[in-house]
Design brief:
The chain has 98 residues and is mainly α. 54% of the residues lie in helices and 11% in strands. The protein has helices at residues 2-7, 12-24, 35-42, 46-58, 80-92; strands at residues 30-33, 63-65, 74-77. A 3-stranded antiparallel β-sheet has the order 1-3-2. The longest helix has 13 residues, at 12-24. It is globular, with a radius of gyration of 14 Å. The termini are close together.
Length: 98
């Protein structure tokens, strides 16, 4: 419940990209995926997905490394601990509590 409420503060595209990454990472937390394919699957442009990944990286929800060219795969690293930390930080800094 707390994770869902903290994720509600992300933009829709950021939330959708994060959920996509979380559902598709390997057991070791790594996803190698071209932005173009991710955008196509989610219904967003390459630019929108790229911006969302950069924002998620700024928020420390993913680690994102770009491929050498737009058609190259990008490496995305995700760990549930990062989402837990994001949620905890959100509620420590939020004026609303349960």
């Amino acid at each position: 419940m707390l994770k869902a409420r903290s994720l509600a503060n992300l933009d829709e595209i950021e939330r959708n990209v994060l959920i996509f990454v979380r559902e598709h990472v390997s057991p070791n937390g790594m996803l190698i995926y071209p932005i173009r394919e991710m955008g196509r699957m989610l219904g967003y442009s390459d630019l929108e997905v790229h911006q969302a990944l950069r924002k998620l990286k700024q928020l420390k929800l993913v680690d994102y490394r770009e491929g050498a060219s737009p058609s190259d795969p990008n490496m995305i690293i995700y760990k549930d601990e990062w989402l837990d930390s994001f949620t905890q930080n959100y509620y420590q800094n939020s004026p609303l509590t349960d």
